[in-house]
Amino acid sequence: MGHPSSPSDHDDFLEDGIPHVSMKEYVTGFVLSVVLTAIPFWLVMAKVLPTPAITTLVILGFAMVQVVVHMVYFLHMNPKSEGGWNLFALIFTAVLLVIVLIGTLWVMHNMNTNMMPGTHDMHEMQDAVQSLP
């Protein structure tokens, strides 16, 4: 007959695969989420960084970190859960996140370059039209 296992021998999961979660983990996740939201907000509102491009890249970095924080602290995804399938889901999510972020930047850049001309461009076009014979 086997000996009873100690509590340290158990995984951090209940019998049906639901992870044991403490209030401390939820509070940690919440605090990290608030900080990872407040810092980019402050960076934009205070115009701390020298160019909008740098600000955008920094905000995208914070967004990626925040997605990981939500996955770890609120969705409880780690390499041990669900026999490793959650790790696969984490990698898949990271790939999708990169695709979405790059696609968003590409679309926004194309929209910016293909929008109607600004007032400076309009004055140049009027000058060009007036100089025609």
Which range best describes the helical content: under 10%, 10-25%, 25-40%, 40-55%, 55-70% or over 70%? 55-70%
Q: Count of helical segments?
A: 4
Strand percentage: under 5%
The major β-sheet equals:
none
Number of strand segments:
0
Radius of gyration, rounded?
Answer: 25 Å
Alpha-carbon distance between the two ends = 105 Å
- Unreliable runs, pLDDT <50, ≥5 residues? 1-10
The topology string of helices and strands comes to: HHHH
**Structural category:** mainly alpha
Averaged pLDDT: 80
Shape: elongated
Structure description:
- With about 130 residues, the protein is mostly helical.
- The chain contains 4 helices and no strands.
Task: Output the keywords.
mainly alpha; 133 residues; 4 helices; single chain
What does the secondary structure layout of this molecule look like, with pairings?
Layout: H1 23-45, H2 52-73, H3 85-114, H4 119-130
Helix pairs in contact: 1-2, 2-3
Summarize the structure.
The chain is mainly α.
